[in-house]
Amino acid sequence: MRNLGNGHSIPPSPLKLFGQAKKRINDIFKEIGEYIYESDNFIQKTYKNAADLVTAEDAGIVKGFKEKVDGITEVLARDHMKVAFFGRTSNGKSTVINAMLRDKILPSGIGHTTNCFVQVEGTDSNEAVLLTDDSDKPKSINDIKQLAHALSNMKLNSNKCIRILWPKEKCRLLKEDVILVDSPGIDVSPDLDEWIDEHCLDADVFVLVANAESTLMQTEKNFFHKVSSKLSKPNIFVLQNRWDISAIEEDIEEVRKQHMERNVQFLGKELNVVKPEDAENRVFFVSAREALVSRLHEDKGTPTPVGALQEGFQVRLFEFANFELTFEECISKSAVKTKFELHTERGKNINSNLRTVMEDVHQRSIIRRDEQSLIFQQKSDELDYMEKQTKLLTAEIKEKIKDMVDDVERKVACALNEEIRRLAIIVDEFDRPFQPDPFMLNDYKKDLHTHMESTLCRNMVGRCTATCKRGLDNMDLYMTGKLSAITAAVNIAFRCLFTQLPLTSHSLQ
């Protein structure tokens, strides 16, 4: 529970919604990033190995998704809620911010004190530092008085911005990723358009700090008309500051009613940023000085000095706390919508487009699978047909070989019989004289035997070789013809099959 500064407590801050939404969307984009990383690896590998399934365009698109998600993740890490405070000089803008931060961080006082934009944001460090546009080198927080104070000789130009990195542990708002931007008085610079373009376009909430001692000025109205022209229905709160004057005014209720009517008219009808019936909930009557003093002493555990708070301060402190609660509800919802809605849509588009790419690849894969299955079935059928035909051919060839062997045997036997009948002629052809001498007779017989054997073999070779070779050649031609006929029949059959297919290899191009 948080303390209002008057002893009462209010429920936990609605700012938790932004933190929860930020964590949730970061987790979602982490999952998207992992999915895209896996998809990118798959697409790149497939593109290298099967360019007909994944095109170069597909590979480039998925890689682009990876870069987009990395960029969104980086932006999400920096996303925060931003509130910008505007008003005329000395209306108490810096005091309001100090009261909300419960510390005297920004220079404040009588006159034109804030010379440039001052952005207060949280840091995890325990030391507060100051950064300027012209340098990344951290400066001492004490330099804020020289750089941002309008009375300093070292002051910056009004369109420049000083960043104060304040320890998150010291401030609840900063811990919840809220950034507060203080501005110079809108009545001291003509560069309002430049201010809006450089410092306001990403603001979730605008707070107009008005002076309750005077009516809403045309200068203030003109500025927010410019803001409204550049942003669609900006969230604007009006703080009627220095309402502690009510303690000494007699007709204060009439003054309050007059301020409320004019502010409601301005917000609800002139700017048309909120319904007239809801405009009253955007206007608060506060004393930032009293809120700051009360909170400083409360945090220190010391009593507030007598006279520091005017009569009826409890109501004004409650009003300030009520403003903070309403502001927190508004900025949290607005920031979730403005900061995360675009990222959410981009994430949806990335997922949708990635799904389209993956479905296209999947569809091509299905076509390739079906085509390959058909080819596989074709080859299987072809192989089965070849096996059957080969078995039939083998059986037929074996039978023909058997017939050929039988035929050769008959022809050889016939030729051998004829040669046997010619043995007498072969013997007569032996021209060596007969030797009756027993010693010479054995040599004679051997020579005769050799002569008859060589002559018989020579005659048999002469009579049978041509016939056998002719039979073998015929068998070889027959086998070759049969195998060629089988192969040709298979090719013709499957060529006819493919001409009837609606899907061809060109379907994948």
Automatic annotation (TrEMBL):
It is a multi-pass membrane protein. One of its GO terms (molecular function) is GTPase activity. GO terms for cellular component: mitochondrial outer membrane. SUPFAM superfamilies: P-loop containing nucleoside triphosphate hydrolases. Its EC number is 3.6.5.-. InterPro entries: Dynamin_N (IPR045063), G_DYNAMIN_dom (IPR030381), Mitofusin_fam (IPR027094), P-loop_NTPase (IPR027417). This is MFN2.
